[in-house]
Design brief:
Blueprint (H helix, E strand, L loop, with lengths): L2 H26 L2 H18 L3 H4 L4 H27 L1 H4 L1 H26 L4 H27 L4 H26 L13 H92 L3 H22 L4 E2 H18 L4 E7 L8 E3 L5 H12 L6 E10 L2 E8 L4 H7 L2 H25 L4 E8 L5 E11 L1 E2 L3
Parallel strand pairs: 2-4
Antiparallel strand pairs: 1-3, 3-8, 4-5, 5-7, 6-7
């Protein structure tokens, strides 16, 4: 194969590698791919001018200038390429200084060659300068390659190997040129000094292409690892945030439970005081029968109150039993001034439905003291429990004197009582809403006759429909 044929094949291979690199530069937009492309372009210009189709269109001056400067300019780019790969400032600072000096020397050399080619041609000076600069580059490469090879990692190994192949090709080409080996067989490319420089450049370009591919894969793996770590950190942060929210919710529930217990503890002593005072009155009046009945019912009621006071929720059956005992006690205390009835929706399973303890009792007590107590005739209190949509509605209805009349007649003691009983119950309903996230409220309706005269009061308590936890 003649050198012209081989040179055409070589430029084709370098052009293919250049196009591949340009595609990668367009994808990744990294400076290192731009340096690599300019480096290959310098070699393409150097060897492209030797193609028959181009050689005839260039002047001897331009040919000599490109032959003398294109490789040196390629080495200037090569210095930056090495620095971008291994960061010479932190790895081999002295080599970085040598590269900077090398750039200055090459710049001076390019100016000299330009002056000789386009101004004052002197072949002896041209050949001497060309030989000296090649020897300086070989000396610099001989120093740099072992230094780079000692660095840790795969990238320096690829870089040292490629640079070593280029160095061997350059030395072989220079030796063959000085020895005029090409004269032994001018028709064979194997005897052409430039062929061995091209062998070295091809070996170097293959190593550098593999190097950049490895570097890109390593970067992708590192990015994937970082992304996984970030994802784990985000997941951990989210888990900790959820745990913190759950812990905060748990604390809020515990606080609500403590507040509920505190509110119940305020209510129970108030009821106990009224009941014990009623027994005292029976004893003072020598009414032993009623005192006995009251004590029996009172002891049963106290047992239920003590059991239920330790629970946040009790069965509807237990609460209704407690309410009936309370109403019976109040009947005795007020000398049968009223009768009562308790009604439950047949569709409600009383043993399976939960209700907050002592939540209805304060409104019954309020009906007795405010409505029935001031009524001249016998009164009636009706308690009903029914399902209302997704909730439970408890209604306390009386036929007393109404709220307006009661407000006119109430005494200081009664006023104090109301502030304790109803205020505490309203606070409990608010806490139940916060605790369950479901509506808990009370509505009071004033009953009136056709003549717009008060005929009693209706209290509707809306509670969440809760089932008993097994």
């Amino acid at each position: 194969m003649h050198f012209t044929t081989w040179n055409l094949l070589f430029t084709g291979m370098v052009s293919s590698i250049l196009l591949l690199n340009l595609v990668q530069w367009n994808i990744y937009r990294e400076r290192i791919y731009g340096l690599y492309a300019v480096y290959m372009l310098a070699w393409l210009v150097y060897f492209g001018l030797r193609l028959n189709g181009i050689y005839v269109y260039t002047s001897p001056s331009m040919q000599n200038f490109v032959r003398g400067t294109a490789p040196m300019l390629a080495y200037v780019i090569y210095f930056d390429f090495i620095d971008a790969l291994v960061n010479l400032q932190s790895t081999i600072p002295f080599l970085l200084k040598l590269f900077r000096i090398g750039r200055i020397v090459i710049l001076a050399y390019v100016l000299l060659i330009g002056l000789l080619c386009f101004g004052y041609w002197n072949e002896a000076i041209f050949n001497s300068a060309h030989t000296v600069i090649r020897l300086l580059i070989i000396a610099l490469a001989t120093y740099a390659i072992p230094k780079i090879n000692r660095l840790e990692g795969t990238v320096p190994r690829y870089l040292a190997l490629g640079s070593g192949l280029l160095l061997l090709g350059a030395i072989a080409s220079m030796v063959m040129s000085i020895g005029e080996v090409y004269k032994l067989n001018p028709d064979s490319f194997l005897y052409s000094p430039l062929s061995y420089l091209e062998f070295g450049i091809l070996g170097e370009l293959i190593c550098f292409t593999l190097l950049l591919g490895y570097r890109q894969r390593r970067g992708a793996i590192q990015s994937a690892i970082i992304e996984q770590e970030l994802a784990r950190e985000r997941e951990q942060h989210h888990r900790e945030q959820v745990e913190a929210e759950l812990e905060n919710e748990k604390l809020q529930q515990q606080m609500s439970a403590v507040q509920m217990k505190a509110l119940r503890s305020q209510m129970n002593p108030h009821f106990l005081y009224n009941s014990l005072n009623a027994i005292r009155l029976f004893v003072l009046q020598n009414d032993s029968d009623n005192a006995d009945k009251f004590l029996v019912k009172f002891s049963r009621l106290m047992r239920l109150i003590l059991e239920n006071s330790r629970q946040e929720w009790v069965t509807l059956a237990s609460e209704l039993e407690q309410l009936e005992l309370y109403l019976e006690l109040e009947q005795l205390r007020f000398d049968n001034k009223f009768d009562f009835s308790v009604e439950t929706d047949a569709t409600i399973a009383q043993e399976s439905v939960s209700i907050p303890p002592m939540i209805i009792q304060p409104y019954i007590e309020n009906s007795i003291l405010h409505g029935i107590a001031h009524k001249p005739s016998r009164g009636h209190i009706h308690v009903s429990v029914r399902q209302n949509g997704a909730g439970l509605q408890c209604i306390v209805e009386d036929d007393g004197v109404g709220r307006q009349k009661a407000s006119e007649l109430k005494s200081r003691t009664v006023s104090s009582h109301k502030s304790v009983g109803l205020k505490v119950t309203e606070e409990r309903l608010q806490l139940i809403s916060q605790q369950t996230g479901k509506q808990s409220a009370v509505t009071i309706i004033d009953k009136a006759s056709a003549e717009n005269q008060p005929t009693g009061t209706i209290v509707a308590i809306q509670l969440p429909l809760m089932t008993v936890k097994v």
